[in-house]
Amino acid sequence: MDNTPLADRIRPKSLSEFFGQRHILSEGTELHYCFKNKRFPSMIFWGPPGTGKTTLAKIISMENPQIPFHSESAVLIGVNRIREIANSSSVGIFGKSFLFLDEIHRFSKSQQDVLLPFAEKGTIILIGSTTENPSFYINPPLLSRVRLFIFETLSENDLLQVLKRALKQHPQIEIPTELMKKIAAAAEGDARRALNLLESCSQASGNGKEMDRRLQKTLLFDKKGDFFYDTISAFHKSVRSSDPHGTLYYLARMVISGTDPKYILRRMIRIASEDVGMADPNALTVAVQARLAFDLVGMPEAELALAEAAVYLSTAPKSNSLYRAWSKVSSAVKKTGNLPVPIHLRNAPTDLAEKMGHGQDYKYDHDFPDAFSGQETLPPVLSGNRFYTPSDRAFEREIKKRMEWWEKRKSEIDKNK
User: Fold this and answer.
1) pTM exceeds cut of 0.85
2) pLDDT digit string, tens, across residues 45-87
3) End-to-end CA distance of the chain, in Å?
4) Domain 344-415 - what CATH class?
5) Cβ proximity of 356 and 282 under 8 Å
6) Quick one: pLDDT band at residue 2, thresholds 50, 70, 90?
7) CATH number of the domain located at residue range(s) 226-315 in this protein
8) What is the gyration radius of the CA atoms in the chain, in angstroms?
């Protein structure tokens, strides 16, 4: 009995058997030209799992049987093995070899540098495979020497074709058409997952309930890679867009997929200040209270506390004036450095400090009408700067009125000096 996974047993051996990725393989594309002329540059295949990266690399090797093909994992291979492949290629008949390097993003920067001269000379035709954004993980010099091809998740129709091909090769597997459609939907664009589900369901011996149980979706959510950052980004932007529906959807995606709730709560606390800000200062209180609720009861009891905070943030009035103010003042501090604190604002805890004039001419605002003295607090170099400009929305309308009144009073005080 062959215990090899079904996905490996039916792996396509030619382009005619390959489904999906038409945007990079259809006639007129660069990769189609490469197959037609059997001439391939060094490449990196970037895309989600189960979209055909490894399969396409192996089809390339079958299209070019005269060129040695080495398949390695970046997790296991070292620089000595790379040099060994390069040396054997240089003395071979064709003077080059294919090197398929799975999970190339696992290679360190120094390991990647070893590939440079061999890719440059063509001694090694590199085919790197990765699920991570090459811009973050691949050295710029290496990235400039390869062609990047982006793989997309497969459509449900593509997955159905993959499943039908599997049934044709293994007629002993009997699966109803309706169940095939469910498998294609549950696989979420991943051919390997679709075939694993097909194999699993075929072992359920026609038990409908057992088949449905095996079809329960395992959400695609890499907790460290691009899918993670894409989903948290979508959550943040849904809140910013005041869309509670999208907000709840992406929150559920993260919670159900096992994201650390503390991470989500930290992001919500940030959103409360960055995107809601002074338009509704209570948003920060709600976000912090959700964090406290999680500490008190844990999950899953705290799920609704997260949902409540997320909905509150998404439906709250929005203002990024606080965020912009912080950016301005941070830039000013970095530009001007440690300016001396105006002497009237300095502390005078000792006799020496008093003799040096610390605190002299300081105005205690509560001693003035309306508890406002109008004194300058910024260092002279920055005098007149206005870092915080409130919006005309929600609670900031009230803040704007107060600030305008204080500015008017300050002008009156300055005139009467």
Assistant:
1) no
2) 999 889 999 999 999 999 888 888 999 988 888 888 888 888 8
3) 99
4) mainly alpha
5) no
6) low
7) 1.20.272.10
8) 31
